[in-house]
Write a structure and sequence with these properties.
The complex is a heterooctamer, with two copies of chain A, two copies of chain C, two copies of chain E and two copies of chain G. By secondary structure, chain C is α/β, with parallel strands linked by helices. Chain C has helices at residues 9-19, 34-43, 58-70, 81-86, 88-96, 123-127, 145-162, 172-176, 216-237, 256-271, 289-296, 312-320, 339-351, and strands at residues 5-8, 24-27, 51-54, 75-79, 101-107, 138-140, 165-171, 178-181, 208-209, 240-243, 250-253, 276-281, 283-285, 301-306, 326-330. Chain C contains 13 helices and 15 strands. In chain C, helix 11 (289-296) packs across helix 12. Chain E is an alpha/beta fold. In chain E, 36% of the residues lie in helices and 22% in strands. Chain E has a six-stranded mixed beta sheet with strand order 2-3-1-4-5-6, with helices on both faces. In chain E, helix 2 links the parallel strand 4 (69-72) and strand 5. Chain G has one domain: Alpha-Beta Plaits (2-Layer Sandwich), CATH 3.30.70. Chain G has helices at residues 18-22, 56-60, and strands at residues 4-8, 28-30, 43-45, 66-70. In chain G, the strands form two sheets. Chain G has a two-stranded antiparallel ribbon with strand order 1-4. In chain G, strands 2-3 form a two-stranded antiparallel sheet. Classes of the chains: A alpha/beta, C alpha/beta, E alpha/beta, G alpha+beta. The interface between B and G is medium-sized, with 29 and 30 residues. Strand 3 (63-66) of chain B pairs parallel with strand 9 of chain C. The structure holds thiamine diphosphate (2 copies), iron/sulfur cluster (SF4) (6 copies) and magnesium ion (2 copies).
Amino acid sequence: MKTVFQKPRSLSDTPTHYCPGCTHGIVHRLVAEAIDELGIEGRTIGIAPVGCSVSAYNYFNNDMVQAPHGRAPAVATGIKRSVKDSVVFTYQGDGDLAAIGTAETVHAATRGENITVIFINNAIYGMTGGQMAPTTLEGQVTQTTPYGRDASIAGNPIRVSEMLATLDGPGYIERVAVDSPAHVRAAKKAIKKAFETQIKGKGFSLIEVISTCPTNWGLSPGDAMVWLRENMIPHYPLGVFVDWEKEENDG
Amino acid sequence: MKTVFQKPRSLSDTPTHYCPGCTHGIVHRLVAEAIDELGIEGRTIGIAPVGCSVSAYNYFNNDMVQAPHGRAPAVATGIKRSVKDSVVFTYQGDGDLAAIGTAETVHAATRGENITVIFINNAIYGMTGGQMAPTTLEGQVTQTTPYGRDASIAGNPIRVSEMLATLDGPGYIERVAVDSPAHVRAAKKAIKKAFETQIKGKGFSLIEVISTCPTNWGLSPGDAMVWLRENMIPHYPLGVFVDWEKEENDG
Amino acid sequence: MSEKILMKGNEALAEAAIRAGCIRFFGYPITPQTELAAYMAKRLPKIEGGVYLQAESEVSAINMVLGSAASGARAMTSSSSPGISLKAEGISYIAGSDLPCLIVNVQRAGPGLGGIQPSQADYWVSTRGVGHGGARLLVFAPNSVQEVIDLVFDAFELAEKYRIPAMILSDGLLGQMMEPVVFPDRAPVLLEKPWAANGHRDKRNKNIINSLYLQASELEEKVRQRELRYREIEEKHSKASEYMMDDAEYAVVSYGATSRVAGSAIDAAREKGIRVGLIRPVTLWPFPSKQIFEKSKNLKGILAVEMSSGQMVDDVRLAVNGNCPVNFFGRTGGIIPTPMEILSEIEKMSKGDIK
Amino acid sequence: MSEKILMKGNEALAEAAIRAGCIRFFGYPITPQTELAAYMAKRLPKIEGGVYLQAESEVSAINMVLGSAASGARAMTSSSSPGISLKAEGISYIAGSDLPCLIVNVQRAGPGLGGIQPSQADYWVSTRGVGHGGARLLVFAPNSVQEVIDLVFDAFELAEKYRIPAMILSDGLLGQMMEPVVFPDRAPVLLEKPWAANGHRDKRNKNIINSLYLQASELEEKVRQRELRYREIEEKHSKASEYMMDDAEYAVVSYGATSRVAGSAIDAAREKGIRVGLIRPVTLWPFPSKQIFEKSKNLKGILAVEMSSGQMVDDVRLAVNGNCPVNFFGRTGGIIPTPMEILSEIEKMSKGDIK
Amino acid sequence: MVKNIIFAGFGGQGVLFAGKVTAYAGLSQGYEVSWLPSYGPEMRGGTANCSVVIADRPIGSPLVINPDVLIAMNKPSFEKFAPLVASGGIIIYDSSLIDSKCDRDDIEIYDINATELSQSENLKGLSNMILLGKAMKVVGILKDKSIEEGLVKSVPPRKSELLKHNMRAIELGKNN
Amino acid sequence: MVKNIIFAGFGGQGVLFAGKVTAYAGLSQGYEVSWLPSYGPEMRGGTANCSVVIADRPIGSPLVINPDVLIAMNKPSFEKFAPLVASGGIIIYDSSLIDSKCDRDDIEIYDINATELSQSENLKGLSNMILLGKAMKVVGILKDKSIEEGLVKSVPPRKSELLKHNMRAIELGKNN
Amino acid sequence: MAKGRVVIDERLCKGCSLCVINCPMGVLELDSSKLNEKGYNPATPVNADKCTGCAICALMCPDVAITVERGDN
Amino acid sequence: MAKGRVVIDERLCKGCSLCVINCPMGVLELDSSKLNEKGYNPATPVNADKCTGCAICALMCPDVAITVERGDN
Ligand SMILES: Cc1ncc(C[n+]2csc(CCOP(=O)(O)OP(=O)(O)O)c2C)c(N)n1
Ligand SMILES: Cc1ncc(C[n+]2csc(CCOP(=O)(O)OP(=O)(O)O)c2C)c(N)n1
Ligand code: SF4
Ligand code: SF4
Ligand code: SF4
Ligand code: SF4
Ligand code: SF4
Ligand code: SF4
Ligand SMILES: [Mg+2]
Ligand SMILES: [Mg+2]
């Protein structure tokens, strides 16, 4: 028998603190696999956000920096500009990236900052116990939209990938999901491509991963996957929004 | 003889502190004309930004609030939500709105906050003496891009109207210019329509006004108008990006 | 409601604010204040004119408060330490624009992301003016859930009377704990606000809310006027409670949650025959300096106890001005001192082991 | 370059930083510090590895500094009062992550938008830890363009030695004025930074830069370690200069730009036969408390002079601890005190008109 | 009288709720009470505990460090808190989940197979109430009526149909 | 010796530059010098001024409030600063633009039609240097050579062709 | 007689020339012989008789210095 | 003999069932008779012989609790 699946090398042995069935774990593994396959662990620096993945610095084997809430792209910029051959990624939730960190996200993108952003869109503030996120769907009940999100009061959910795709700086933007084996495989490919975009110096790359938060959605991990599929993907269609390769071929 | 043109009523008698030929003055007047024509001065509250128009509170006759740099949309939100029948507008420069205020702008827009934003895009930080703005063009020399803006270092200029048009909250977004009589007339119409959008409760409205900063561009007011036409409009095409009326008719 | 009910500090604060007439809340989630916002999110949509808005950030939230307050509304926000740092600029603007409002800081341990357990390490930023330019906040430090309620009313009323922002300086312990409370039959005092920017309605001259004064002399005059109000506030509104101070030779000075533990320590010390009492500042700014100064004349020593590396102790020393030795004991990182630890410090002090 | 050249304080600071080995600058424009950034924007693109980046905001700029410092680079940012408020959270994170860096505050008058004229009203936020959690910055207060240069070197070196952020507390006057300067032949001391997160290159274990410690006991231990370093810094690195203090009966305590004016006032007072001298804190944290305490034993009175409503005077009083009366004179709003005003206060003090 | 109590177990076992019922019961008997949860990132499977103080005078620290009464619902909690119980104190633990020993002889230790009981008695998820019942009997401060009142206050009105199951679980605890 | 000098006029008239030349001239004679501009939002048409101090001992305040020497290039500046000139001080003003009177008899007042001269002598924009020349003659501290050195230091190398025009303007001021 | 008439408030004028540049009839010039209080050469009608009262000058004036009258007589 | 083999690290398993749900062969179940240190019922192969070694379970496991082997023999 040959081992066909095991823990990637760049993932540490520390068990994660994530809730059972939380997809943060899946995405961590995908990032680690991409780092392994590209052989870049030694020059990779990751930025942990504030959010459930705040302790991501414990889970990756590359150097890690923990950023203030929403500021991961700015922290990443400081590192990337100071260590020229580094590979720098941020790992951020929807509150972190699309609420408090909106300016940092938009400007890292428009600068074409040569970093990779892994964006976990789970439509909720997981860590703080389930408040509305900028990506919370209309009607979705959260701790701070107890009667369901009413867009006329609480605003409309943001489609981050579409918004950033209007800018000139991004080299690669794709939205993926992790609700099924096929989607997880596609997510892996996208994440790897994002890192390659950076390594080739093609500018800002971002992978939006439609994810679950079983705990704060109040669903079992399995049901959360179904909810994701039926509710989130229709509002957040999967696909590639910017692709430097395609542009180079087309142009 | 009949007076066919005079100072609008909602503009105060205080002479402005703007430099000779600065288009801030033109846009102030257009806003005041719209307020006059709609008869809303008594219930209008304006928000002055930080930027050359910081003292706008001296120039309008309606109630005014001076906001911290970039936060005018948040201040406007606080007012609009507290005084239900008010008409609230912000008047912001490109640094204010599209750099430090990016998050406030994007989120007021996505919330569909029922306010009107007058956005003066002059491709520079006027007040602080001519530093790069988020809308500074590639190659443009400023105090902080002394060798011309190099997008690969200083980032690409942002097209704000296009970016915000991807969101669900805006009711009206148009980009206009004030370099010629025809454009000024169109700008006036757009500004009025933005206020009407608010009055009718159709959501967030924003008019991006392509403007000049003769002082920091180092050009005479007349030459600045030509530079605007030849350099800015090609990068920032004029037009309507969101129109609730059209959507209602189409839908 | 005169029946006692159990309520969390965070929730009681929210309910008290609503009863004090504050129905405009702008916030951003952060532990350990989340229950406060959640409570508001439930209650305010059901109240006519009620505004609950989750902003995109603390920076935005405080500026929404600025706008709401500028329009004459009673407005508030709540957060915890890192979030308060982000509000610093906005708070300085609110102070510089002479606007009243309420800011709640349910402190957690820092610096940086720190931890989420209780702390009192934001004393300096709260009392020395959070943000630039040296403006002041009224700072209230309740030590029980019941007192939270009472001080919320005071906070709004003094804030509006003097047109300055007020802060309730709570902490994770006080915010998370439940205690029995009774809501007082207290009708909020609402002043006219002829200065508010809410639309002149063609009935008055325009109002301007502003903190910019490019002429230094004008700005200095503004600052001077404000300082005069500060002096009046210091004169009239500092507050401290005392426990066992009548015959005390030693005093513990401690505020907020920590003062409760200190109270237990004092009971234990008294049992051992040590004549020690407690002075508990209820307002941190204005600090009850006079009261402490007067008491210090007859004391052999003071022990300041905080959940920090020593911040309020500065104000104690300033108040005491050399009258007697001032010692310090603190725990940090989210650790709540125990009565035994404090007792042991009191014993050391009474034995002269610490000066 | 040993010839004296005229340079603005802001530009001299920038040049000094570059010579001190800091070629990573992240900023956001604000008056009256703009020349500093403009200078960097001109020079850094011409230097190998040099990074000049105008961030989208002060919040972003300080976090870029955090990243750059985390990667082991010498990094800096500069701003003025409102911008510093916005950096508060980031600075607290930098302190909590034990990272060295340089933050320049070219103070202007506040609170709020305030004005753009010189001020010293950010003393509190600078010395009491800008931001939550009670962390400290090394705070240097030069009073001449030449001293700006010298202190920039010190700032970087001490910051890196103790892994804490440093601040140069300048003001509009010092930033905008030109004076003759000579750049010293001083090679920057560069320490190894084995803790830096710059990629482990398969040669060492991973490095983590972090300020989160969910276990209160762990966080307390972190805080305790940091406080030990603080004590060492207080012991070794406080600095004040004295002028005419040998036979002084009275002292003026004043720092930065204001201390120059105070110097003129002292000359004038000496001409009138008043035995007054100047103690000028060069480091504001650590504050030269011991030096002032010792001096105060033989003084009849102290006059603290600031461009604020009175902030440093707290530290003077804490240092003096009742040894002699401490008076205060300040101007605000951007107004620079005149020698005559200060002289008149000195005279009042020497006549006993103020205590 | 001051009783310092700690309820401890896995998140989701209802330790906070049991504490609240106890605090309300104390309140209805006219005592001073306080309730303080451990708090933090809400993640399933973590441990949770709460401090409850019942006293006849103002309560100092609401945080209990050395409990007079420990109600332990899982092994890690038992191991963490048993050594901290005040001399003369009491431990009540769920023997279905905890097999640890505690060889202190200065305290009283009671056990009850609460989880098993709850399953066999069709009271799933109410092992907390079973333990509470046992504890209240052993400690003997709170009256039956107070506990019932505490329950009424703690169960949201829309879930009042759960009251009787809770009461039954408490009874069960008292009698086992 | 301490000389407190104010140069004042409209923005764009070169008052800051004139001050810088003066400061450098002082420096080249070995004096302590300082130069401080009024600053603010850079807008054309505002007034601008700068303080220059030249002294043989360390300079206290670089901000001049009561100048020993005032060089006034427009009417608002003249009106603002003339009353502040120290007793025994000197005013030099541009009589092409300023018609105000100042009836103080404790100071010396000189005028020169600098703007007219600059236009007639084909030295447009150099009325500042003409006034400076006049002032230096009247005040008599700085040597010709120092002023020239001051100019060399103040004019950026890429504009060095302007040096001779500046020198001519200064000469003109000295001789009128 | 001209169809239109422009009145320029010299106090407000900053001499920016935008009216001059945009007037289709060449009515306006800056008056280099005058300097207003702020130090600017104000605009002034030099070909007043050609004025059509189209108000384009006023439309482009950033300082609301121009009032325009039109004769329907 | 089964083509594949899964090894589940019970220490890491959080009993989320994602592997159970996604295994195309119905190989896995949670073991309700066991409680690991963290209080979860760990997953365990109940139809080990059906395992194809497709690694889908591991792909979906958020906790990297599963190692998969495949026999090419
Ligand atoms: C300045 C600041 N504001 C707020 C918080 C509190 N906080 C921690 S995590 C978080 C949101 C996390 O949500 P998200 O980014 O979506 O990540 P998730 O937990 O869902 O993965 C918030 C608001 C904080 N730590 N700092
Ligand atoms: C927090 C803060 N940061 C920076 C500044 C300094 N500042 C004043 S105006 C301005 C930019 C103005 O540019 P823009 O918004 O484009 O307006 P304009 O002057 O061009 O009309 C800046 C950075 C400030 N006052 N406050
Ligand atoms: S709270 Fe939600 S996002 Fe956070 S670890 Fe749990 S399931 Fe995942
Ligand atoms: S600096 Fe530019 S934007 Fe500001 S007033 Fe002058 S011309 Fe207008
Ligand atoms: S109204 Fe028309 S024609 Fe008359 S001056 Fe103005 S622009 Fe010229
Ligand atoms: S456009 Fe207005 S300000 Fe400009 S020159 Fe004409 S009248 Fe004067
Ligand atoms: S490897 Fe495939 S068949 Fe085997 S247990 Fe996993 S998912 Fe099922
Ligand atoms: S997916 Fe992983 S954690 Fe979940 S039950 Fe299966 S083995 Fe356990
Ligand atoms: Mg999330
Ligand atoms: Mg601009």
